[in-house]
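haha ok so turns out i had the wrong file open the whole time. this is the CORRECT one, sorry everyone. sequence first:
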Amino acid sequence: MGELIAVLSGKGGTGKTSVCAGIATALASEGRRILAIDCDIGLRNLDISLGMSDSGALSFLDVSEGGYELSQVSAHPLYPNLHFLTAPMNCPAERIDLDAFGAMVNAARSQFDYIFLDAPAGVDAGFRLAAAFADRCILVTLPGPGAIRDAARAGELLELMGKSNVRLIVNRVSKKMVSAMELTIDDVMDLSGLPLLGVIPEDGNVTLAAAFSQPLLHYSRRCRACRACRRIAKRIQGIPEPITFR
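then structure:
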């Protein structure tokens, strides 16, 4: 059975969607069957980070309400193992039928190895929708004590929801910043109270990929962020990989 992974953040601007797309694409490139679902209703942009902005994708509401089957979801033009459902535009998260959504993602477990839910920023209804059925939650934060503390608060809310498998990714880390702050991996875990899944360096290729609606792996030869996403994808599969700020 496939595993459901919610990718969340305590606040906006963390690069959560780019991280979700990078990891999902890395897993698909290794032959894993992936379904990526954009849960950011009204501000959807996972399609851009995946390089699927021209795919004409179904929304998850199209499938959860019974109009379409999971077998009809859009496949990536370069990574055929990667499939995508976008978010509906005009249905507030509070009005989503939670039972129908849960039935859809649970049905997806039999067809995909990993289902990624890209949640909206913040801790409102979209956060709860994405986390509700998740087997594993990934919190994406920026470096710095304040941002990590916000992630810790989001982790506490997930714990109140009964989620115990919560991991942290620190995104957009520069070597200069880490050196100036004298930040270590142990410091990050101490500040957040959460186990660390990975660190992704600051990398201009992430901006380029979004600007040209290309998957991040398109820049893999010179992209440090891409290599970090591949390492995280290994860890998700239980394959040991070192965690490094480089």
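DSSP finds ten helices and eight strands in the chain.
again sry for the mixup
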